[in-house]
Design goal:
Helix content is about 45%, strand content about 15%. The protein is of the alpha/beta class.
Length: about 375
């Protein structure tokens, strides 16, 4: 099998994995019911609570991030429950599909791709809804929602907030308790600097109360069972022990850098990427006020298919950026800057992208983009 191991991943996930984490992944396996695993699980759970900024339970699942989203939904709802889903991209659409699959009565607030939902509109639409479902950071469009205001709107009518933070948790400050978020899903392959395979869900006391009455089917994703097992230092099913060992290393790296420094670096990288986009004469796809700090979406120049740009950057520079998804295929490209990404990684990507844009007929000055990125990064880092 020819799987390249020298590609710089500048996509919205999976992200590059630090060597210390790779070493942990390659270490010998061990027993998941023993004392060593119990200690490891406690360390990781407490670390995740710090990243989530919560005193709530945070449960570790062996699954993709979408598994955490499904778990968050099915553990607090019953068939027939009325929910409002904010749909502004592929992952908002996925939340809608999960809720519908399990029998929820789904109202959809469609949001123009590249724009954030207006909390006042959400407030007016919410009535007898059991929950508000939304993606805090939509990687398909590069948009960050005002999660604090959306959660506040849900609380006004007694609705739960079920939030997908798969791409943003760890890369942005998301104070779960301060914002009153009820069920919050995240995944390993983004800002946590791990491969895909682990997922995390935090549950507020209000969410646990809902879980006690919820009747949507669940077995593997039964969070009540996961909570009972966690109290014994275990998981209800066989976990990916090497991934959890690697998670402990990832958390060590995050805390060694300092959580606030990690968030500052991600914000600075976002500012740098946006500044480069402007300097190259390109247009951001996302509303600038709600542009993500972990992925930047960019309009393709007129007449240029972003799929060709992605291929050329990969083949000629060994850097992988992303194109658009669904109706945005060929129309936008996306640069991820999360996890262990550093300024040099972003500068290398900006230069390669500028070179290939020129080769495809869009004239731009790579050095101007690089200078703008450096200046914006330094200004944001302080």
């Amino acid at each position: 099998m020819n799987i390249p191991d020298d590609i710089l991943l500048m996509i919205p996930g999976p992200t590059n994995v630090p060597p210390q984490v790779l070493d942990a992944l390659g270490s010998p396996s061990f027993y998941h019911r023993g004392a060593a695993f119990k200690e490891l699980l406690e360390v990781c759970t407490e670390g995740l609570k710090k990243v989530y900024q919560t005193a709530n339970d945070v449960l570790i699942l062996t699954s993709s991030g979408s598994g955490a989203v499904e778990a968050a939904i099915v553990n607090v709802l019953s068939p027939g429950d009325k929910v409002l889903v904010i749909e502004g991209g592929k992952f908002g659409e996925r939340m809608k599909d999960i809720a519908m699959t399990f029998g929820a009565e789904v109202d959809v607030l469609p949001v123009e791709p590249g724009r954030a939902a207006d909390p006042e509109v959400v407030r007016r639409l919410l009535s007898d809804h059991k929950a508000l479902l939304f993606v805090q950071n939509e990687t398909s469009t590069g948009v960050r929602q005002d999660a604090d205001l959306l959660a506040a709107a849900a609380r006004e009518v007694g609705a739960l907030s079920v939030v997908d933070t798969v791409s943003s948790m760890g890369g942005m400050s998301i104070p779960v308790d301060e914002w009153g978020l009820d069920a919050v899903a995240a995944g390993s392959q983004k800002a946590f600097m791990l491969p895909p395979g682990l997922a995390f869900v935090s549950m507020s006391e209000k969410a646990w109360e809902a879980a006690a009455a919820a009747r949507m089917p669940r077995a593997y994703f039964d969070l009540v069972a996961a909570r009972k097992s966690l109290a014994k230092g275990q998981t209800p099913w066989t976990p990916n022990v090497n991934m959890i060992r690697a998670l402990a290393v990832s958390l060590e790296l995050i805390f060694a850098e300092g959580l606030e420094n990690v968030w500052r670096r991600h914000h600075a990288l976002g500012e740098a990427c946006r500044a480069a986009v402007d300097a190259l004469g390109l247009r951001l796809f996302a509303d600038r006020e709600h542009a993500s700090d972990v992925v930047t979406a960019v309009h393709s120049p007129d007449g240029l298919d972003s799929k060709e740009l992605v291929s050329r950057v990969r083949d000629n520079h060994k850097i992988l950026i992303s194109g658009g998804q669904g109706e945005l295929a060929g129309k936008i490209f996306r640069i991820g800057h999360m996890g262990c990404c550093q300024l040099d990684d972003l500068l290398r990507t900006i230069e390669a992208t500028a070179i290939e844009l020129n080769a495809l007929g869009f004239a731009c000055a790579a050095q101007e983009g690089l200078a703008a990125a450096r200046a914006a990064y330094q200004a944001a880092m302080g």
